[in-house]
Design a protein that fits this description.
- This is F-box domain-containing protein.
- With 380 residues, the protein is of the alpha/beta class.
- It has a domain of 148 residues.
- The chain is built from 13 helices and 13 strands.
- Helix 2 packs across helix 4, helix 3 packs antiparallel against helix 4 and helix 5 packs parallel to helix 6.
């Protein structure tokens, strides 16, 4: 641990080390050590402070800590507000509020912290990554709120360098929906590549020229159908229910300007019938991650993991599928699979889908094909 003394500060070798070199050394230190290093001297403080604030990751676990307010977020905003030289140095700003239980109505006190965030966020003009996962902040009836809490924070913000954005709050029927503020905000993000909108349940009205570099999206099917057409999205992760997929919105996710290669369906329970429809719509997908609904068994004559035998007919529609990830699928009440069963399924599926090279089963076991021979993946 670095220690400070007047003698060392007045004429030691450390004083001749350039700030750039010190910054490179300090950059490898964990945040707890950086915080201690900042106390050594004013010079160390200036360097450590900039590194500490360059990437901010805060998680407020509310009920588990017995707190009614997200105090870590509050303290962070207050610290930024009194350091006007720091906002331009902040590249990552990730805020997550979580609670393990449903508290009584009005238990959490969010208004002051939301106000602080709304004051601080517009000053972070050099942001490259933003996450606002605000948990139960939107759990008041829409008639009493008037605006989505995330929109109350992002309104008027402009982040010309932002590449990654995640916006989310817990949702239930009757809470405040997003308004026109959200698309207005997205329209100011010319460099955006990765977007997650987990509680936006409808389409987003956005001009085709906006977010022209978008390559990945995670969210509801209705939002995806409005954002993907004519944009270079090659990775899609859907959340919600499979009933959100309709004849009207399904064809639109295939209208991307580049082939959609990666499809993640772990955020929704997927019936085999829906998977077949998606395969017909997106035949050039390379990787698929699925949480299957096993109450709609694929092969009634078989038991255990072998009930997935009928998946071969669906996989045949994915002409270029290389990776099949079934790890999110729950096998509750179903006997554990054996290596023999899994190998047999790999052989069966690869006959239907010759491009298949890697399979991850619900058991979390991974199998790979080497020269047509399937075996457990070798770690490392």
């Amino acid at each position: 641990m670095l220690a400070y003394s007047p003698a060392a500060n007045s004429g030691s070798t450390i004083e001749t080390v350039p700030n750039e070199t010190l910054a490179a050394i300090f950059d490898g230190l964990p945040p707890t050590v950086l915080a201690l290093t900042a106390r050594v001297s004013r010079r160390f403080n200036a360097i450590s402070e900039r590194l500490l604030y360059a990437s901010i990751n805060i998680r407020d676990g509310l009920l588990e800590e017995g707190s009614q307010v997200p105090w870590r977020t509050q303290r962070c905003c207050e610290s930024i507000a009194v350091r006007p030289h720091l906002p331009e140095k902040i590249r990552d700003f990730h805020i997550r509020w979580a609670s393990t239980n449903n508290p009584p109505h009005g238990y959490f006190q969010f208004s002051h912290t939301l106000s602080l965030l709304a004051t601080v966020l517009p000053t972070l003009t050099s942001l490259e990554s933003l996450e606002l996962s605000l948990g139960q902040a939107n759990m008041l009836p829409a008639t009493t709120v008037g605006v989505h809490p995330i929109e109350s924070i992002i309104v008027g913000c402009q982040f010309p360098k932002l590449k990654t954005c995640t916006l989310n709050a817990d949702w239930t029927k009757g809470v405040q929906p997003y308004s026109g503020i959200l698309p207005q905000f997205l329209a100011t993000l010319p460099e955006l590549r990765h977007l997650k909108l987990l509680d936006q349940n409808g389409p987003i009205q956005l001009a085709p020229t906006c977010i022209p570099l978008l390559t990945s999206f995670r969210g509801n099917m209705h939002a995806a159908a409005s954002l993907l057409p004519q944009r270079p999205v090659d990775s899609l992760a859907l959340v919600g229910g499979d009933t959100d997929v309709t004849r009207e919105n399904l064809p639109r996710i295939a209208l991307t300007s580049v082939p959609l290669r990666h499809l993640d369906l772990s955020g929704m329970s997927v019936r085999p019938a829906l998977l077949r429809i998606l395969a017909a719509t997106l035949p050039y997908v390379h990787t698929v991650r699925i949480r299957l609904t096993l109450r709609h068994t694929l092969h009634y004559a078989l038991s255990g993991i072998r009930m997935l035998s009928g998946l071969a007919a669906v996989l045949a529609c994915f002409q270029q599928l290389v990776v099949l990830d079934l790890s999110p699928t729950l096998m509750t009440g179903i006997p554990n699979s054996t290596a023999q069963d899994e190998r047999a399924l790999c052989n069966e599926w690869s006959r239907a889908c010759p491009a298949l090279e890697r399979v991850i089963f619900p058991s979390q076991t991974e199998w790979t094909s080497v020269n047509g021979v399937w075996g457990p993946a070798v770690e490392g």
